[in-house]
Amino acid sequence: MTMSESRMSVGAFFRKYTMVIALVVVVVFFAIATGGGSLKPGSINNLISQNGYVFVLASGMLLCILTGGNIDLSVGSVVCFAASIGCVMMDRGMNMWLAVLAMLAIGLAIGVFQGFWIAKVHVPAFIATLSGMYAFRGLSNVVLQGYRVDISNEQFLFLFGGGRDCYIPDYVRQLMGTEGKPNLTCLAIGIVAVAVYALMTVRRIHVQKKLNIHQSILGQVLTTCAICAVVLFITWQMASFRGIPTVLIWIALVLGVYQYITTKTAMGRHLYAVGGNEKATALSGVKTRNVYWFAYASIGLMAGLAGILTAARAKGIDPTYGEGYEMDAIASCFIGGASAYGGTGKVSGMIIGAVLMGVINQGMNMVGVDSNLQRVVKGLVLLLAVVFDVMSKRQKR
Amino acid sequence: MAKILLEMKNITKTFPGVKALDNVNLQVEEGEIHALVGENGAGKSTLMNVLSGIYPFGTYEGDIVYNGQVCKFSNIKDSEKLGIVIIHQELALVPEMTIGENMFLGNERGSKFAIDWNTTYAEADKYLRMVNLEESSKVQVKTIGTGKQQLVEIAKALAKQARLLILDEPTSSLNEEDSRALLDLMLGFKKQGMTMIIISHKLNEVAYVADKITVIRDGTTIETIDNRGPEPVSEERIIKGMVGREMTNRFPPRQGVKIGDVMMEVDHWTVHHPLYPERKVVDDVSMYVRKGEVVGIYGLMGAGRTELAMSIFGQSYGANFSGELKIDGKPVKMKKSVSDAIKHKIAYVTEDRKGNGLILSQSIKVNTSLANLSSLASMGVIDQDREYAVAEEYRDKLKTKTPTVEQLVGNLSGGNQQKVLLAKWMFAEPDIMLLDEPTRGIDVGAKYEIYCIINDLAAQGKCVVMISSELPEVLGMSDRIYIMNEGRMVGEMKAEDATQENIMALILQSGRGA
């Protein structure tokens, strides 16, 4: 790397990684404020299971935002509605898998329904989903008749991360016939994940060399090392606690699928294209309205899944559950650098945004900040993040 | 020698990593029309942004001396106070508002608490008459044509008590007739003592209107040509300064192209306006193109050329289509679908590359593959290595100037953007290419390269339909020329029979005139 390159990259580095730096600062701050408590295995575990729904909903939300800053206000209500139906089904003794399928199907159907109005009838997304927000909240109340319904199906709770024992059992130790900590299965999975990720980076750099793409190799190696280190740390903490919480499987699955959709598939490309310039995209032969439809169908499905996770975590459903979920998802995307005008935004950014919000939430809880004040802080973080984004884009000109 | 109204001395402006202006000097006499010419990216607009305070004092080096005083503008308001008013290339009018409201936007007439509408409209009307507009100032801007909107912009500038008027590409979206009217209006203002700076790519207009021509190349002033002699300066003379060499041939010759059979044919093609279904925008048009042929379509703005092309391209414009489209002699029943058109090997390269053509926030690579992504994907998954290779291939072929194909298209110059747009459609592998104003707003060097690309396409046996409102380009590039006016085909001639005069005569004779 020459001198000029390294000098150029300092400003660019800060711009590119503003939110990562912010996240590190916040993590360190709360680690100090809680005397290391926020980095304890239990806290990390809580962080993951408490925010499962955010990752899932924000993934879907990202696609909607990509199409042009469109949001889905209805997801909170859909989460509650889908979960209500599923819980009532299980409460009446129906098969658990039937209930799970029903919840996903309901989410998807609602997404397709709302997407129809948005894509085909050109109803503004804001309005179509605002009406959904009212309607499905009301319907949840009707289904639950105003009362809470509890879940007693242990298998459901275990699979979707509710209750005390929903961790992946330590199969490795079972095989070896030993007991104790650390959880070797968790360690093994973490190490394999890191190894696969490192290999992917090596392959990518190799391809770049072959094709003569000039990208900072050092930067990519450092990024990969940083991510591996974080993953290994979390793995170790979880291993010395109870292992991998089952909800993490669902989160990882969703994040993986959405990362794949946005970076590798033609549909992902079309989402960015529509948000970047819808007219040009239409004149390139892309059926742009179907792209909208896909985005809203996908977030519907995610709302169904989030409903499952929410119900499992709370071991039941109450007509008020899911309120404000849409805002958490939207905030995560915007904090993560998605453009409010569409066309830009990444899954990795959204993850940073969601974790940042989660860490702040949890940290403030542990420090004992008043819950009203917590909302003020959240609001300010969102504003600051977007201000940063706007300013750094302006500096580029 | 007349008084120097404006002098810009040793202006240097650097952006991170780029020196956009390097010791630029500009002297403008009171009461003259001074033209600034140069290729795209030469620094003309940057210089004017420095002058008008968009880049405030302190962000550049050098002095601006205006009316004998050194000026330190910190924003546009400062420069406007002294009568320096800039009219930007892109019209900055609010379509939904009336002419009067637009004219005094940010400069409202009346007291602090209420706008005095009577004064507003009375004054607005006064300024409209000064630019020879008969419209009432109570008319919504969206209801008048582009030519008139440009005049409203000028009236708006006059309302700001302009003493030095800067016009950035004022005729880029105007047809020849409106352009001429605007240039004559400028000459009229000059007689009344107004000083003007005009930035333009249209060298014939510059030669017609300017007293002095300053050439900027690569951020430095090359020369100032005096154009007050009895004979206007030749375009070749100006081009020499702009590109640093003599351009002996502006249109590359097409060699060894065999024109084949008829590839596409349109019969009695009629298209109605999408919003006013009773209005015909394309009226009973018939035309054909042969393999390896470059067919020019000339017409004034609003002649229906773009509408014709877009309606052929998967009915992407208009309503109530009738007529027949034949490809390779077979009638094609085309649905209202762009992807259908692409399947029939038709490509439409838009005139509006920023609005309808490119995704500025995405990379060259992404833009290049967009119209034919399916060929790079299996089961909906893109082969990104191949995609990169394709983008590289077209970058090489079209000589797009960029460090990498990962560069965002929004950061490219107009000429390079146009090349990306062409690359995108060449990659879609069409047999029929409808090029709509393929050289609009790009500099002389890039134009030549685009012409070479068009020749290559013809040599590969593709049919090229080139829509253009620049007559020399149509004459220089086409094998055959169609002339359109008011939605109808009013003439067809072979290139060797065509001259500027007989084409214009055809348009004027076609009756209703423009």
Written description of the protein model:
The complex is a heterodimer of chains A (397) and B (514). Chain A has 397 residues and is mainly α. In chain A, 76% of the residues lie in helices and 1% in strands. Chain A is globular and about 60 Å long. Chain A starts with a helix and ends with a helix. Residues 1-7 of chain A have low confidence and may be disordered. Chain B has helices at 44-52, 76-81, 99-103, 117-130, 146-159, 176-191, 203-209, 235-243, 305-312, 338-343, 353-357, 364-369, 384-398, 414-427, 444-459, 471-477, 500-509; strands spanning 4-15, 18-29, 33-37, 61-66, 69-71, 84-87, 164-168, 195-199, 212-217, 220-226, 262-272, 280-290, 294-298, 319-327, 330-332, 346-349, 377-378, 381-382, 432-436, 463-468, 480-485, 488-494. Chain B has 514 residues and is an alpha/beta fold. Chain B has 17 helices and 22 strands. The model of chain B has no long low-confidence stretch (mean pLDDT 87). In chain B, the strands form five sheets. In chain B, strands 6-7-8-3-9-10 form a six-stranded mixed β-sheet, sandwiched between helices. Chain B has a six-stranded mixed β-sheet with strand order 16-19-20-13-21-22, sandwiched between helices. Chain B has a four-stranded antiparallel β-sheet with strand order 2-1-4-5, covered by helices on one side. The interface between A and B is medium-sized, with 27 and 36 residues.
